[in-house]
Write a structure and sequence with these properties.
The complex is a heterodimer. By secondary structure, chain A is of the alpha+beta class. Chain A has six helices and eight strands, in the order αβααββαββαββαβ. In chain B, helix 9 packs across helix 11. Classes of the chains: A alpha+beta, B alpha/beta. The interface between A and B is medium-sized, with 22 and 22 residues.
């Protein structure tokens, strides 16, 4: 196995691409994101039986017939990383994802203030923490990608 | 005359479907509310519940498909009139509608009346003992088909080292599988649906048909797999258009509405469609019933040769007709007029909009039409001069193979292709509210058909049918679709009358060769 093959075999970090031309605004990504980040991971229990009610980490933006799903872009120069006062926001070395250590988060919302995409949400029902896309760690592909019925959210390997 | 009288006569629109919502499963995510173009579902924030208005449901099953918990089931309304074999529910509902509106009843897709389906009364042969069957996974099996005029005889030149063909061949369409996508215009279906068909045709080495809606600028790149249609409205017909495709088809009629024209309502004529069709924005696109320059076979010949002239005899030019009583002599006339292929569309052929009464009661089934047309052309010794393409309600690979054995060179599929893209035959194409993003121009709805998915599903369908056709051919001990064409000995009729058998040119089941 030569060097190039080794490089090719190594799993590259993923990134989520949104294609607004195919987003039909059904918001199923939000539903499945909520379920994935719930305690029970069961769609009916997550909606009907969990308190605090989990919130989705993906938001569908809509105006007229244009809509698209938006979640953390995991920016290369993420301003939330710099703004975080407790060091709760960190970059995962393996996946290149920007993640929030909820144990460290104190809910000062500085990350929300600096996020250029508005994709960090306040989760205030339980402990006050910043809630954001974690690329569904542990899943083969993020659930928003998996369940989008029109392939308007796709997963690509980072170049 | 306002007053009690007119109010008494007013009856609510009959409810066709009942939406059953399992409240235990419904999580009030409102996907159904957002997705239904008929505004059936609504959300009440006060009680955090979703409810449905059954009267508006058309039964397209989009909400049922999209519901993440499977909480929705669409059922037919069980409400019944007093049983009457003559005055059944449909008749009563239709009369009521017309008594209220005074209009022609419209519908979409193909005839849904229970006429006999001859395919379901025809069975195929298979090899046993006396001739070996062929395993298509181990041995070559040929589905390649050529559409176009074949020479009366071939002259060969043996003088050189290699044998050469002396006869100049007429232009041919090369199909890797004997299935084409039938004419569906941009206008009747969305651009994303056209793109799905075009990409699938490219990938499978077959053709799609523009219908009479012209060719959108984004579709020119699929030209090598496009059949260009010239219909009575002449929408979007210009030199580049005629040169863009691989073949030209003159549309005289279509199976769903023989003898009548088309009508694309002005609301559907968007900026893009107006440019493609070359008509003013928002005006109705009316296709006349006849071509105003074709009133005889001689006139048709003029148009065929005008189109051949324009394309410098490089492309086959065919004619599409609907299957009517005189289909065989008409087909013969068309071949003699110089057509390179004749497409025949049967009774069950679909449409984006047609008067219900026409769709359901005009024309003859394609099985009979193709059998008599093929027979007539053979009898007259001109079968080689044109290919026959049959369409109109072809539902499976078995329908395809039986149609080919009855004499067709290839088949057109329209409805089956739409079903592959998501359609559930709610027959509401004419409303322009297609929830599946197929028969609509509403930008909110057309987005729902991702052409990548559409093309993939169409390719899957053609691939699956092609494999099944190979299996059936192998079973018969035939290794090329060419050897099955018009090979009616491979067919037998079950439960058909002597007249049916005679017209189809097949023997009854049980009778040996």
């Amino acid at each position: 196995m030569n060097k190039n093959q080794k490089l090719a075999n190594k799993k590259k970090p993923k990134r989520i691409v949104i294609r607004e031309e195919y987003c039909m605004g059904c918001r199923l990504c939000e539903v499945h994101c909520l379920v994935r980040h719930s305690k029970t991971k069961n769609i009916i229990k997550a909606y009907k039986g969990e308190y605090p009610r989990p919130i989705p980490r993906i938001i569908v933006e809509e105006k007229g017939y244009v809509s698209f799903a938006l979640q953390c872009r995991h920016c290369e120069d993420a301003p939330c990383l710099e703004a975080c006062i407790t060091g709760a926001m960190y970059r995962d070395k393996k996946t290149d994802a920007v993640l929030c250590n909820e144990k460290k988060c104190v809910g000062c919302w500085m990350c929300i203030m600096t996020c250029p995409f508005g994709v960090i949400l306040r989760n205030v029902e339980g402990e006050k923490v910043a809630s954001k896309c974690d690329l569904c760690m542990g899943e083969e592909i993020p659930v928003c990608v998996k369940y989008c019925p029109n392939e308007a959210i796709i997963c690509e390997e980072k170049k | 005359m306002e007053g009690l009288g007119s109010k008494m006569s007013k009856r609510p629109t009959p409810t066709e479907f009942i939406i059953e919502r399992d409240d235990e499963k419904c999580i009030a995510c409102q996907a159904c509310v957002r997705m239904c173009s008929n505004d059936v579902h609504s959300y009440d924030p006060e009680s955090d519940t979703v409810s449905s208005d059954n009267t508006k449901c058309v039964g397209c099953h989009f909400c049922e498909t999209i519901c993440p918990t499977g909480a929705i089931t669409i059922k037919r309304n069980p409400s019944e009139f007093k049983l009457n074999a003559n005055w059944n529910a449909e008749v009563i509902k239709n009369i009521t509608k017309q008594a209220e509106t005074g209009g022609v009843l419209l519908t979409g897709m193909g005839c849904d009346k229970p006429f006999p389906i001859y395919w379901d009364h025809i069975v195929l042969n298979a090899s046993q003992v006396t001739n070996p069957s062929i395993d298509p996974l181990r041995e070559p099996m040929e589905l390649r088909t050529y559409i176009g005029r074949k020479p009366d005889k071939l002259a060969l030149d043996y003088s050189g080292k290699e044998t050469k063909l002396k006869t100049t061949l007429d232009p041919q369409l090369k199909l890797e599988t004997p299935i084409l996508f039938s004419a569906m215009s941009y206008g009747s279906i969305s651009l994303n649906a056209c793109k799905s068909l075009a990409r699938a045709a490219v990938e499978m080495g077959t053709f799609y048909n523009t219908g009479e809606g012209g060719l959108h600028k984004d579709l020119y790149k699929y030209g090598a797999n496009t059949i260009i249609q010239v219909a009575s409205g002449r929408f979007g017909v210009h030199k580049e258009y005629l040169e863009a495709g691989a073949a030209i088809e003159i549309k005289i009629g279509q199976g769903a509405k023989p003898g009548i024209g088309g009508h694309l309502p002005g609301e559907k004529v968007s900026e893009e469609i107006s440019q493609t069709r070359m008509i003013p924005l928002g005006t109705d696109a009316l296709s006349p019933a006849p071509h105003h320059d074709i009133y005889s076979i001689e006139d048709l010949r003029q148009l065929i040769f005008a189109l051949k002239e324009v394309t410098r005899y490089r492309k086959p030019v065919g004619v599409k007709i609907s299957a009517v009583h005189n289909v065989a002599p008409i087909a013969s006339g068309i071949v003699r007029a110089g057509a390179d292929f004749v497409a025949i569309d049967g009774l069950r052929g679909g449409t984006g909009a047609a008067p219900t009464v026409i769709r359901d009661s005009v024309g003859i089934p394609i099985e009979l039409a193709i059998a008599v047309a093929d027979h007539r052309l053979r009898e007259e010794g001109i079968r080689n001069q044109a290919s026959l393409i049959a369409g109109g309600g072809i539902r499976s690979s078995s329908d395809v193979i039986k149609t080919i054995a009855l004499g067709a060179d290839a088949v057109y599929i329209g409805t089956a292709a739409l079903v592959a893209m998501g359609c559930n035959l709610c027959q509401k194409c004419y409303t322009g509210k297609c929830n599946w993003g197929i028969a609509t121009q509403d930008p909110y709805l057309t987005k729902r058909l991702n052409p990548e998915i559409g093309a993939r599903r169409l390719v899957n369908l053609l691939r699956a049918w092609s494999m099944e056709i190979k299996e059936m051919l192998g079973g018969m001990g035939i290794n090329a679709i060419e050897s099955l064409r018009g090979n009616r000995e491979q067919l037998r009729g079950v439960g058909l009358s002597d007249t049916d058998l005679k017209l189809l040119g097949i023997k009854p089941a049980g009778e040996a060769w």
